[in-house]
Amino acid sequence: MEKQYLTPIARKLRRQMTPEEQKLWYHLRSSRFENIKFRRQFPIDNYIVDFVSLAKRLVIEINGGQHNQDEDDKIRDGYLRKQDFVVLRFWNNDVNKNLESVLEKIHQQIHS
Questions:
Q1: Alpha helices, H only, 16-87
Q2: DSSP assignment letter at 66
Q3: CA 48/CA 9 separation, integer angstroms
Q4: Are 48 and 41 contacting, i.e. CB atoms less than 8 angstroms apart?
Q5: Per-residue pLDDT tens over the stretch 62-94
Q6: Rg, Å, the chain Cα set
Q7: pTM of the model as a whole
């Protein structure tokens, strides 16, 4: 699938973010997190990732019921890693109950 076909889907996903995505986005948006620009629901080749810092080559995925597809996630993560991205995955529950821990793991990855 070409990016031009994914862009309208990504726009729709931006309008329909889950509460957990909204919660994390509040901390990542407008370079609030360590002055690093993140994008949300961003097309990378054939995939749309939840959040990405292109400068840091970091993809952040929030997994909930809609993403509970282990094999698809492994294929997607493998592809993104081949494109030199690091992929961090967090469960909705992590964002809801341990947001500081999620932000700390993102911080650690950025500075590793």
A1: 19-28, 70-82
A2: G
A3: 9
A4: yes
A5: 998 654 567 888 999 999 999 999 999 999 999
A6: 13
A7: 0.89
